[in-house]
Design brief:
The chain contains six helices and two strands. It has about 130 residues and is of the alpha+beta class. It has a domain of about 90 residues. Strands 1-2 form a two-stranded antiparallel sheet. Helix 2 crosses helix 3 and helix 2 packs across helix 4. The radius of gyration is 18 Å and the shape is globular. About 15% of the residues have low confidence.
Amino acid sequence: MFSAIRITRTWSLVGAAALACVSFAGNAVAEQHVVPVSVPVNSQGLDLTKLDDARMFYSRLQNAAWVVCTRGTRVDLEPVADLKGCYEKALGDAVRSVRIPLVTQLYLGTHTLQEAAARGIKLPEQVAAK
């Protein structure tokens, strides 16, 4: 089975040129630039119907969410104001988009059903029936 996902976060960035204009023009307003940052996550070589492989993939999703919300592999970007919120959103969005029952179950091992519902994560049938 092959699936790949991009975990994305949007950074706010004020350009240096705009800052220079503000310092000289006084009342000039700098535009806010939105820069999407994403990290591809690959499941090649993993069988996501097997628990150990699903754990490996979930670990990759967690790592990618952390990278997106911290370093972002970009320079000159504003640090995120709410690191935990960014991480939870990135991870939840990734779990929702892959729609893999074992990955969802791993997510539910550390998150509540309400948190999953808030992220739009579809619950596996055996969990939803409880």
